[in-house]
Design brief:
By secondary structure, the chain is mainly beta. Among the domains are: 153-209, no CATH class; 215-344, Jelly Rolls. The protein has 1 helix and 27 strands. Strands 16, 17, 18, 19, 20, 21, 22, 23, 24, 25, 26 and 27 form a 12-stranded mixed sheet that branches.
Length: 345
């Protein structure tokens, strides 16, 4: 019969043994070291002032008191270092990394609760739940390469489902990008988490669309007219548009409605004129009844003419556009006749 146990090498009290308390106390000390095993850290050299019962895993590149003890568990007992040789299956909690690890006979591995290494949910400085099975509270998250590159994959079951990144303010959605209900990549934004606008859509064939980009094709009511000099012509019909262009109040000193600009930005403005006869005329694109940004002029003529002018100008939300007349001419108004096109760049 051996004089110690098989797994923990605890000394037996033998028959007719003197000072039986010695092997008994030695066994208690060993049990005290390995039961509920907690390792402060893995170190290459002993700390200067160890505490009674402190346990360390001896690392490589040893020096001093731990020379030749690599891989052993060093325990400070009664003013000296004692050493334990771990067996496969030993488990320990490492205080410095807050990890539970198991020894496989060669190295200490972080314990996975499932045999396949999967966890049902995990919270990092946060509480995970059945929907948010991975929850992270941190100032930043880093996903780096192993090799030359790194891919972050978001998969969905079929085209009608959602695979997106949602950005929130105080837990209310403000921007979303990804595959939202189709296989077209989109970027959506919201000011309140309820009403959403699609800013960008990239179709699977690579065609890019901006459904909220301000665009309009506006004209006065179809027909012919000879506006007086120094009068204004507004607009009646919006033939094509998106992004919020609308008709406002009547223009001063003329007819038709103001064309209201929906958002700040630079715009491409294009004015097309169609005249039947003219005694000499000038038609200008005017902002807010005060600022002329472009104009088209024509000499006296008894024949129909077509003219156009294009410019780029900075406009602001709430600005309004109208046409300012000088001279006298008979105009054709309406789609593809006299009209104004505006596109936000």
């Amino acid at each position: 019969m051996s004089d110690q146990t098989n797994n923990l090498a605890l000394p037996y009290i033998l028959p007719s043994q003197a000072q039986k308390h010695v092997p008994h106390n030695e066994a208690l000390q060993r049990l005290d070291a390995v039961v509920q095993l907690t390792i402060i850290a893995e170190r290459q050299a002993p700390p200067e002032t160890p505490g009674e019962g402190d346990r360390y895993l001896v690392a490589a590149d040893l020096e001093g008191a731990w020379l030749g003890r690599q891989g052993l568990i060093s325990v400070w007992q009664d003013g000296a270092w004692a050493y334990l040789s771990p067996n496969p299956g030993w488990r320990a909690f490492f205080l410095d990394t807050h990890q539970l690890r198991a020894f496989d006979g060669t190295k200490w591995n972080v314990i996975s609760l499932d045999a396949d290494g999967a966890l049902p949910m995990i919270g990092i400085n946060a509480t995970a739940d059945e929907i948010n099975r991975l929850a992270v509270v941190s100032e930043a998250s880093l996903f780096s390469h192993a090799g030359q590159g790194h891919q972050l994959k978001i998969n969905k079951a079929d085209p009608s489902q959602t695979g997106t990144l949602l950005f929130q303010t105080n837990w209310s959605g403000r921007a979303e990008m990804g595959l939202a209900g189709s296989d077209a990549f989109s970027i959506k934004v919201s000011g309140d988490g309820n009403d959403w606008s699609t800013a960008l859509v990239v179709a699977p064939d690579g065609v890019v669309r901006m459904p909220s980009r301000p665009i309009v094709r506006a004209s006065p009511a179809a027909g012919t007219a000879s506006p007086p000099s120094a009068s204004r012509t507004g607009f009646t019909d919006l033939h094509a548009g998106q992004g919020g262009f609308e008709l406002g109040a009547a223009v001063p000193s003329g007819s038709g409605a103001r064309l209201i600009v929906p958002a700040d930005g630079f715009y491409l403005l294009s004015l097309s004129l169609s005249t039947l006869t003219s005694s000499g005329h000038d038609v200008a694109i005017e902002i807010n009844g005060a600022t002329v940004v472009a104009s088209a002029s024509g000499p006296a003529s008894a024949s129909p003419t077509r003219q156009s002018v294009t410019t780029i100008v900075e406009l602001h939300e709430g600005d309004w556009l109208a046409l300012l007349h000088n001279g006298t001419a008979q105009y054709e108004f309406g789609l593809a006749k006299t009209e104004l096109c505006a596109v936000m760049l």
